[in-house]
Design a protein that fits this description.
189 residues, alpha+beta, eight-stranded mixed β-sheet, 8 strands, globular
Length: 189
């Protein structure tokens, strides 16, 4: 996909992570471990270490270069090094007649209710459709996750189905609402 993108909003800069971002990523996940637990799959303790993220960020670059994923750190622009406030990922990119990806995201607990994820995704989605060339972006959420449901609805995602026992989260197989958004200006692949 070429150079790693940089997407800017009024308050945030979205960039790919690099190995030197590993300590910040480990700290972000550790700080939000309890907060994210009810909506995230089981996470091994190694995920909270900088050593793992040094390796993962190298893998993420390879995924980007192979057009399989585009993963972003959401950083607060006002801080010198850009405090890490969240992540947004486009994964499982499929090309050809599908031109689609899955959207995943998480936000620091301290930034909840401040429009941060809306601002970040409202900038990321046009990039996904116009620059990356996707036709469809899918995002799924737990039925009881009202914040994610409201965010996705506000961004223009439409519910398309309901998947029973979709993901193992918080100790059990959990149902999910399946949503998607398609490009406002569709083009042939």
């Amino acid at each position: 996909m070429g150079d790693l993108p940089v997407i800017r909003t009024a308050r945030f800069t979205l960039t790919a992570g690099a190995p030197d971002d590993a300590p910040a990523m480990a700290a972000y996940l550790t700080r939000n471990r309890r907060f994210h637990a009810p909506t995230a799959p089981p996470t091994p303790d190694e995920v909270y270490t900088a050593a793992l993220w040094e390796r993962r960020f190298v893998d993420h670059r390879r995924e980007h270069d192979e057009r399989r994923a585009a993963r972003f750190l959401i950083r607060e622009t006002a801080h010198p090094r850009g405090a890490l406030v969240g992540v947004a990922n486009l994964t499982n990119l499929v090309w050809g007649p599908f031109c689609a990806a899955y959207l995943g995201f998480s936000l620091d607990e301290a930034w909840q209710g401040r429009g941060a994820m809306y601002e970040a995704l409202d900038a990321l989605l046009p990039w996904a459709f116009e620059t990356l060339g996707l036709h469809r972006v899918m995002a799924n959420h737990l039925p009881e996750n009202r914040r994610s449901a409201a965010l996705l609805r506000r961004l223009g995602f439409v519910p398309e189905g309901y998947a029973r026992d979709y993901l193992f989260i918080d100790g059990a197989w959990r149902d999910h609402v399946l949503t998607a958004k398609t490009s406002p200006r569709p083009v042939a692949p």
